[in-house]
Automatic annotation (TrEMBL):
It comes from Aureimonas pseudogalii. Keywords: DNA-binding. GO terms for molecular function: DNA binding. Residues 6-77 form the Transcription regulator AsnC/Lrp ligand binding domain. This is DNA-binding Lrp family transcriptional regulator.
């Protein structure tokens, strides 16, 4: 599985509704956090290796009601203890 991180800018007052929509409606989601700074939410998704990231982001995420912008980061390797 390939991990991607997507930051979301939401329309005013819509961040919690967008977070709920992600958790309830996008099976590829791992977790979502509310954040400070330029973006309102940070979400982690796991996609199958043959899944087109561009189509996933533009068709499944950017079209959610309340989303005004996204910023996607593709992860290469996870590091951890142990």
């Amino acid at each position: 599985m390939q991990a991607i991180f997507v930051q979301f800018k939401c329309r005013p007052g819509r961040a919690y509704a967008v977070a709920d929509a992600l958790v309830e409606g996008v099976e590829e989601i791992s977790e979502v956090y509310s954040t400070s700074g330029q973006y309102d939410l940070l979400a982690k998704f796991y996609l199958a290796p043959d899944r087109d990231i561009g189509h996933f982001v533009t068709e499944r995420l950017q079209t959610l009601d309340g989303v005004s912008d996204t910023f996607t980061t593709v992860a290469f390797k996870a590091f951890g203890r142990g």
